[in-house]
Amino acid sequence: MSEAPSFRYARPICTVLVLAYIAGLIGLQVPAVAGYFKSLTALNLLATLAALLYFHTDWRPSFYFYILLAILTGFFVEVVGVHTGSIFGGPYAYGAGLGVRLWGVPPVIGVNWLLLTYCFGSLADRLPLPVYMKAILAASGMVLLDFAIEPVAIRLDFWTWFGQPVPLQNYLGWWLVALVLLSVWYGLPFRKENRVVTLIISLQALFFISNLVIFYLAG
Question: What are the protein's UniProt keywords (predicted)?
Answer without folding.
Answer: Membrane, Transmembrane, Transmembrane helix
